[in-house]
């Protein structure tokens, strides 16, 4: 896989989203776009199909988390949509992860498992979720669980990539959100990194939302982040 900058779409309506994408030249049609739960629930599969027909690569970030049979049958449907990436929660367990991979059989969709949300820090992990492990140990445990049950990679903070790669494989994909250029505000993310730092840590792809989508010139913001990422 190339090492893409994935643009997280976070628009209130599909018209606003298309206006944003129209800033990009035609030769940028291979843009990698993340569709999260909010936009998917609002616009559904027709929106995904529309973007695929325009030539965009799609990271469908639904974070599926249910009993194995339900997740498998859902993945069987999504396998027909020709999306490039799909997420499940690693905390769904080994059987659920394996079922998701089985549901995607025959498609080229890569299965990524979410380890620990970047909005959760050590305090939330210990005090709210009652997880006794240190954050890095917990993420590594979930990454190994995903790796052992057929996932193609994980979603994790860039800060955890070296440990995840060491515990799994250098070929195990690490796609990292929580990316902010130096000039951007951190927002609601707690475990963040710059594009250059993520690259140096071994991230295979980065996900960037507001620093691009809310910029005065979204295309130029994207180009600037790509330059930092590809140094």
Topology:
Blueprint: E1 5-9, H1 14-21, E2 32-36, H2 37-53, E3 57-64, H3 68-78, E4 85-89, H4 94-103, E5 110-114, H5 122-127, H6 135-148, E6 153-155, H7 161-167, E7 173-176, H8 195-201, E8 205-208, H9 210-213, H10 218-229
Parallel strand pairs: 1-2, 1-8, 2-3, 3-4, 4-5, 5-6, 6-7, 7-8
Structure description:
With 231 residues, this protein is α/β, with parallel strands linked by helices. It has 10 helices and 8 strands. An 8-stranded parallel beta barrel has the order 1-2-3-4-5-6-7-8, surrounded by 6 helices. Helix 3 links the parallel strand 3 (57-64) and strand 4. Helix 3 (68-78) runs parallel beside helix 4 (94-103) and helix 8 (195-201) packs parallel to helix 10. The longest helix has 17 residues, at 37-53. The chain is globular and about 45 Å long. InterPro entries: Aldolase_TIM (IPR013785), OMPdecase (IPR014732), OMPdecase_AS (IPR018089), OMPdecase_bac (IPR047596), OMPdeCOase_dom (IPR001754), RibuloseP-bd_barrel (IPR011060). Residues 4-225 form the Orotidine 5'-phosphate decarboxylase domain. Pathway: Pyrimidine metabolism; UMP biosynthesis via de novo pathway; UMP from orotate: step 2/2.
